Description:
The structure holds 2 protein chains of 2 kinds. Chain A is mostly beta strands. Helix content of chain A is 0%, strand content 50%. Chain A is built from no helices and 11 strands. Chain A has strands at residues 4-7, 10-13, 19-25, 31-37, 43-51, 54-57, 64-66, 76-78, 87-94, 103-104, 108-112. In chain A, the strands form 2 sheets. In chain A, strands 2, 4, 5, 6, 9, 10 and 11 form a 7-stranded mixed β-sheet that branches. In chain A, strands 1-3-8-7 form a 4-stranded antiparallel β-sheet, with no helix packed on it. Chain A is globular, with a radius of gyration of 13 Å. The N and C termini of chain A lie far apart (36 Å). The model of chain A has no long low-confidence stretch (mean pLDDT 92). Chain B is mainly beta. Helices cover 0% and strands 45% of the residues of chain B. Chain B is built from no helices and 9 strands. Chain B has strands at residues 9-13, 18-23, 33-38, 45-50, 55-56, 61-64, 70-75, 84-89, 99-104. In chain B, the strands form 2 sheets. A 5-stranded mixed β-sheet of chain B has the order 1-9-8-3-4, with no helix packed on it. Chain B has a 4-stranded antiparallel β-sheet with strand order 2-7-6-5, with no helix packed on it. In chain B, strand 6 (61-64) and strand 7 (70-75) form a beta hairpin. The chains are: A mainly beta, B mainly beta. Chains A and B meet through strand 5, strand 9 and strand 10 of A and strand 4 of B.
Amino acid sequence: DGGITQSPKYLFRKEGQNVTLSCEQNLNHDAMYWYRQDPGQGLRLIYYSQIVNDFQKGDIAEGYSVSREKKESFPLTVTSAQKNPTAFYLCASRKDSNTGELFFGEGSRLTVL
Amino acid sequence: DAKTTQPNSMESNEEEPVHLPCNHSTISGTDYIHWYRQLPSQGPEYVIHGLTSNVNNRMASLAIAEDRKSSTLILHRATLRDAAVYYCSDEKLTFGTGTRLTIIP
């Protein structure tokens, strides 16, 4: 079945460590997005990519990095520079960057110990 | 930048209609209005979207004001499975804090 797969579902890390969250889609979508969600909060955009080898910062990009080397993959690295990394991270994609519905993954919950 | 505002929470009795409002007074004239909903510990799922005229699908109806400054998501007959946080957004995918819908059995 087509969809978006995020892994891992749960992740623990120590302070000062970088961690990479995986996001893969087999929907042949051009645009991919990373959102962060904190308890009781809405979704805030971290980074997005409209096409392979291109990406732009969202509203809260500091302390995060991404790459888009393949159409189907858009990994997010949470670096040690991110001051409050504990959150629920959601990846999404859609056919193109200007219109259409978003398809979301199941999310990755990162906890910093 | 376009911004959406929604009530923080709403309650409805089971099997009754629910009207969830969203204000988007600065939305661009060519941007669609999107609605998503999110169950606990899951990713959001698409509900419906529209541009100017009212829209219907198997999940819900979307009523868009003539001036496009607001819209209302309508669940015609709420079930317990409709309890979720509902988000409206513009085409630029700016999500607010959403409306937490509680269904009372």
